[in-house]
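Retro notes, structure queue

What went well: the backlog is down to a handful. What didn't: a couple of records were mislabeled last round, so from now on we paste the full input next to the output in the thread. Example, using glutamate dehydrogenase [NAD(P)(+)] from Brachypodium distachyon:
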Amino acid sequence: MVDPDEVNALAQLMTWKTAVADLPYGGAKGGIGCSPSELSMSELERLTRVFTQKIHDLIGTHTDIPAPDMGTNAQTMAWIFDEYSKFHGHSPAVVTGKPIDLGGSLGRDAATGRGVTYATEALLAEYGKSISGSTVVIQGFGNVGSWAAQLIHARGGKVIAIGDVTGSIRNKAGIDIPALMKHRNEGGHLKDFHGAEVMDSSELLVHECDVLIPCALGGVLNRENAPDVKAKFIIEAANHPTDPEADEILTKKGVIVLPDIYANAGGVIVSYFEWVQNIQGFMWDEQKVNMELHKYMNSAFQHIKAMCRSHDCNLRMGAFTLGVNRVARATLLRGWEA
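Corresponding output:
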């Protein structure tokens, strides 16, 4: 359920995330307390349109740009864009993550998962390794998890276990991801997939692997399971999947954690690209979107590594230091210091 503390925390995280990615954005969050899965399409539309009527003077193409998150999708963004435009005239740049037909960007759908893949490549390269031949475990098989799985599989990575709310499966020889995608797109659950065996979901995060990618909810790595984590690298594709106690345990164990404010920034980076395209009235092809995303993810990683070197700290501290420093510098330059 959406609550003010969580929304405040996510807004603050977004501020540091956009700073780490070097985007000309601040950070904001908002939401509606409801259960979208229990509402009909027309109820969701009415709810979204009324919400937009209430906040239309708070959002704007140069003020605050909503984008989809949990429980929302391209259709939700289309309703916000349409309702906002009734008040302010045609304004495609007021939201991102829109359907392609309404000014959405190519590559936006895969952006977070693709960003996670680029981040994983950058981190592994730092240790002389690559995705090809690495064993990977993915928790969550929604938008981010499924794209990360497909892209890692395409790069020769071995996805040996995957889990979501319907159950978890494993195959130590590597799961056939294209076959699993076909199975899921036909309405099948993970646990009914024939190319892997069902496993206990509680064992997923502590499964033997090189790379663990939590793509689902926050707080899944905690003091109970952190001591048993066997992965060498953790890529935080979800927001805040590692709680502070687990973070400390994992650091002591020598597990390398790539923090969420960098690892899952692919979504907001391509949202920025969509906004830029809408403002210019000039759309890019998918190859350009992916090339620019790769550039931004790599550049951010190099800046985080530079921070880690100069402050002798881990990646999370390096990323936060980078983000907070950039915001502080901008604040000083504008003359806002206390």
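Agreed that this is the format going forward. Reviewer comment attached to the example: The chain is about 45% helix and 10% strand.
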